C-alpha cells in the first residue's frame, strides 16, 4: 500500500493532520533538471519515451516531496491517437495542421485501440510506479472532450477559441460526433491507465469557462459526466473546469471524488456553490508564485484556513508558469507541510 | 432632449415597453462600410480624426438603429496621452515598445492636460452629437486602470498577463503609483467627455477576471470605485468587468447606474449576485452570433425573459467579433425590437 496516503485520504474526505499538496504542471518547465532533458529531446519524444516521461514525473517529487505525482504527458496525445495530427511548435505551442472544420473532416477520425496507440503511456506508468516505490500516489489525466475539441477545431491555442465555438454553433451534429468519439477514447484510455497503476485520475476542462452555462451543459459537461460515470468505481476522479464556477453545483453531484477550483472562486464561494461536502482542490493564482517566498507562505496559510484542512487538496488554480523561481515553488510546498491550524 | 431615451430610462430603472439594445464594439470591424474606411486610414488616424471617428460611430446606427451609439475610440488613447508609446500592429494588436517594468519606467509617465492631449476625442464627440441629432444617446468609455496597466506592463495582449501580474505582486508600490496616475487621467478624461456631450460613460475592465477576488479589490476595484465616485453625479456610469462575477455584490453598491455582465454569468445568477435592484447590461456570448439568425432570435428572446424587460439593457457579453455576418448582427437587434413579453 501507499506509504503517504494523505492525498487518497483527502479524496475520500477523511480527517487529516494537514491537507495534501501537489501542483498542476509540477513536472516540467520551471525545473532546471527538466530543462536539461528538454534541451535534448523534443516534446513528443519526452511524452512517448517511457523512461523520459517517468523521469520527468519524479523530478519534482525528488526536489520538493509533493504528496502526489502526476504523470508527465499531454492532453493532446488523445487526438493524436485518434488520427488527428498534432505538432508542438516552439513559439506557438500546439499546432494541428489539419483542423476539423466540417463533418467530412471527421471521416478519418477513429476511436483507436489504446494499447496500440497509447501503450507508451501505460509503460511510462509502470516505470513511474516502480520509481515511486509506493511512497506516494500517481495521478493520471486527460483533457475534457470540449477542451480537446477546442484544439482539434481551432488548430492551435486561442484567446477565445472562436473557430471551435463557431463549429459547435453552426454544425452541432458534427461537433457532437467528434465529442462522443473523444469521450469514448478518453474512457478507454483512462481505464487502461488505472489498470496500468495510476491511483486517481483528473479531467482538465481548461476551456469550459469560455462557454455560457447552457452551452457548457450541452458541449462540455455531459461528456465529462459520461467519463466520471465510467470511471468512478475504478478510481477516484477529480474534475477541474477552469472558469466553470457556474457549474460547480452540478459538478458536485456528479460522482467525482473532488473538484478543482480556480483562483477567481474564493474558498467561501467554492464551498457554498458545491454544497460544502465534496473535497475541493486548488486554488492559488499561479502568478502569485511571483510574490516573495514569505508572502507566498502567508497566503498559503490563509488559503488553507479558508478552505479548511479537511476535504481539501492544496494546489494551484491552474498550471505552474515556466518562469517561477524554484525557491518560490519550494515556499508553496513548505507552507503546506508546516501548516498548523490556528 | 433625446427622442429615443429608452437607454437612459433603463439606466434610471424606469419601466419600459422593451429593453434598449446596443452592442459592445458595434462601431467597427464586422461592418463593410467600416472596412472601407479601415482600408484608407490606419488605426490611430481613425481614432484621432474627429470626422472619421464620428462617421464610424454612426455607421452601425444607420444600418441597424441601435438605441445608443458608443464613440469609436480605443482604451489605449489614455496611456498614449500619458506619454507611454502605443502602436497598433496589424497581426499583433496593441504594441507598446517601451513597457513599464520598474519604478524608474514611471519617471516619464504624466497625468496629462486633457484638452491638449485628447482634445480630438472631444471634437469627435461634438461632431457625433450633431450627426445623431438628439435621436439617441451617445456613450463615452474608458478602460479600467487595471486593464490599462495590463497593456502598459505586458506590452501587448496576452492570455494571462503574467508580466503585468508579476509587476503588481513584486513591485506593488510602483503598480499603485501607475494605477493612481491612470485613475486621475481617466477621471479628468471622462469628465471632459461628459462636458463635450456624452450622455453616459462605460468603464471596461476587460482583464479584471484574471485576478483573484482579493487582488481584484486591491489592484482593480478600488480605482474603478474612485472613477465612479467622481463621475456619478455628472452622468450615469456603467461598470463592466469581464469575468468579475465574484465582485458583482460589491459593484452593485458602488453608485454605478448599471453593471455589465458576461455570458458565463446567467441572468439568474447576475440578478442574485447584484441584489436584484440595479440595471444590468449583457450578456449574449459574442460567438453565439455565429448561430443561424433564427436561433439568435430565439436565444435573445429567452435572454430578455430571463433578465426581465426592466432594469435591463440588451448587449453582448463582450465585443462583437470581426467575422460575424451582418445579417446575424441584424437578427440580434431585430429580436430586441420585436420583443413582447409572454
Notes on the structure:
Two copies of one chain form a homodimer. Chain A is α/β, with parallel strands linked by helices. Chain A has one domain: TIM Barrel (Alpha-Beta Barrel). Helices cover 48% and strands 12% of the residues of chain A. Chain A has helices at residues 6-12, 32-40, 43-48, 50-64, 77-81, 114-132, 145-154, 162-170, 172-196, 213-231, 248-252, 267-273, 293-307, 326-337; strands at 69-70, 87-89, 93-95, 138-143, 200-205, 237-241, 258-261, 279-284, 312-316. Chain A has a seven-stranded parallel beta sheet, sandwiched between helices. In chain A, α9 (172-196) packs parallel to α10 (213-231). The first copy, chain A, is globular and about 60 Å long. Chain A starts with 5 loop residues before the first helix and ends in a 5-residue tail after the last helix. Chain A binds chain B through residues 157, 159-160, 162, 165-166, 169-170, 209, 211-213, 215, 243, 245-246, 263-266, 269, 285-288, 290-292, 295, 321, 323, and chain B through 157, 159-160, 162, 165-166, 169-170, 209, 211-213, 215, 243, 245-246, 263-266, 269, 285-288, 290-292, 295, 317, 321, 323.
